[in-house]
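I hope you will forgive my troubling you with a question about protein structure. Here, with my thanks, is the record as I have it:
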Amino acid sequence: MNEAQTNPEIAIDVKNISKEYFMGKNHSVKDGDKHFFALNDVSFTLNRGDVLGIIGSNGSGKSTLLKILSQITKPSAGEAHFYGSVTSILDVGNNFHPDLTGRENVKIQLKLASVPSNQFETYYEKTKTFSEIGEFFDQPVKYYSSGMFLRLAFSLAFHLSSDILILDEVLSVGDEGFRLKCQELLKKFTDSGKTILFVSHNRADILELSNKCIWLDKGRIKKMGAPTEVLGEYFAMHRDNFDAQKTIIDVHTPHTDSDGTLHLHWSEAEAPGNDIIAVRELSVQSPAGKLFSSEPVEIKFVIDKKKSGVQIGAFFFLEDVFYQPVMVGHFLNNSGAQHFGNELKNQTGLVEIKSTIPANFLVPGKYFFLVRFGMEENEWHTTSSEAFRFSEKMSFTIHAKTDYVDFVGDISKGSVRPPLGWSIQKIN
């Protein structure tokens, strides 16, 4: 007897599923025939109420996995056990007969689902109302748009009261209003103890709906865990791969230390820059050594100002691993209201510029560090010239100490989490 049979909380138990395809004639097995694994030894367990988001590049095995779990395709090896009824929406409208109307298709699907006669009319009306397709309900579905198919398919799936729902990229179809309506119903679905598996390329859907995430890569599970963690590594990998294909002109590929800090040094001859400014040193570090969320983050630039009479502005942008902006730091926007541009205007030679991000400001995670230097001979304005910028490949990582507690419970809800001033006062 396996764990799933003794644990009533388990809804899905997937063990060592593989799917092998042969590329010979008639897909037969012959010596020398090419073959590949669309899935290779995939295993996971989901509890009741879990929502699993599945991500991966095209061809990674996502749809193959859902087809096997929906019993459309047989695995070459392994097995999956479901503890409850299952409804699948893989291809929008795939359960509908194209020549029948929406009304006729709904009635057929309700009968196939063995809906009791005393509840048939209730299910029928709920499905019709939720779909919001109006007069098209009495038109043959072959004239439906993909959005209309989605509305009808979702309506049926949600109102058939299955224990497990399997979705393949259907949340991306349809208008925003209906998508939000589906998300709300999905939340009600899981709140009642139902289980959902869905494939999506939409980061927002994964973060908003799922509590677990699987990253499939070439048929294998590359990572499974919290959505923020898995998506973070997935997006960072794609960004690294993209950057590796680009020619970096201004800076050689920077190195992030194993403790998450960043330290770059250049000799006078190799310093990146131009005839006005060159950068000799750049670092992101902490007094604690390793970058912890509970410690301040110190950012330091050492520049070689080569020309007098020009104001220099140093600033940086932080982006999270989803390429979303987190914060901007500009040395003219400083707590002391000092005009550092004027102070630097007539200076030349080496100048150290430092900035500190307070402790308990950034939540744990990887951040891309985009550094810019501006220049202005007169007064600063939004269109002042850019003197120099670094490539966008630099990054650092904020770590969590063992006693770190995320009181919000989901660090995906914003990368900046500063301690704010609060007060409580009894007024009666």
User: Anything to note?
Assistant: DSSP finds nine helices and 18 strands in the chain. The chain has two domains: 3-239, 246-398. The longest helix spans residues 227-244. Residues 246-253 have pLDDT under 50 and may be disordered.
